[in-house]
Amino acid sequence: MGSDIPVDSVRAVARLSRVLERSLDGLSLAQYRVLAQIAAGDERASRIAHRLALGKPAVSAAVESLRQRGLLSRGSVDEDRRAVALALTDEGRAVFDAAERAMAMRLQEIIARTADPDGAVAVLRQLGAAVEVLMSERAAGRRSERSEQSERAERSERSERAGCSERAEWPERAERSRRSE
Asked: Any idea of the CA torsion for 151, 154, 160, 166, to the nearest 10 degrees?
C-alpha cells in the first residue's frame, strides 16, 4: 500500500505540518505536542515520550525548555518518588490555548480552499484515529517484544546456572574417571 501513496501526498502532509508549526509563534511542533500531552493528562515524561514516539532525550529537552520559559512546572508523584509530575502553569495553559486556536484558524484557512471542506475534515479525523491505532499496536508489539526478551533472558540465565553447576562438577568427574582407569 505504501507504494500506492503518491509522493505529492506525502509532501503535502509535510508542508501542512510546517505551516501549522509556523503558526505556533515561538513554540516548536515538538514543544506543542508535549504541552498537548500534558494538557490531556499525561504527567510523566516517560509516558509522553512513549505516547509521542519520541526519544526520552528529545522529550527531556523540550520539557526543560518549556520549564525555563515558565510554561511547565515539575512536582513529585506520590506513588513513585523517582518520577516527576509535569503540569502546565497558568502561562503554559494560556500559551497552549493560543497555539491551538492559531493552528485551528490556519487549518481552517487551508481546508476552506479544498473542493470538499467537510470531506477534508473527515479525512483528518480518520488519519488521527489511524495514527492512534498504529501507535497502540506498536506499543503492544514493544511490550510483547520486551516480554519475549525477558523470557529469553530468564531461560538463558537458568541454562547458564545449570551449565555452571555441570562445569563445576566436571573436574570432579574427570578426576574420578582417571582414578578408575
From this structure: -100
3-state percent helix, strand, coil for the chain, nearest multiple of 5: 75, 10, 15
Provide the pLDDT for residue 25: 84
Cell readout for 143 is 511490550
Maximal C-alpha separation, the chain: 95
Alpha-carbon distance values, 162 to 152, 170, 177 (Å) = 15, 12, 22
Which pTM value belongs to this model? 0.69
Q: Hey, is 75 helix, strand or coil?
A: strand
So where are the chain's domains? 2-113, 117-181
To which H or E segment does residue 95 belong?
Answer: helix 90-111
Average pLDDT, the chain: 83
Rg (the chain; Cα; Å): 26
* Mean pLDDT within 3-32: 90
Q: What is the CATH number of domain 2-113?
A: 1.10.10.10
Which residue bears the cell 532525550?
57
In three-state secondary structure terms, 72 is strand
Q: How far apart are CA 120 and CA 89, in angstroms?
A: 34
The predicted model gives 18-31 an average pLDDT of: 91
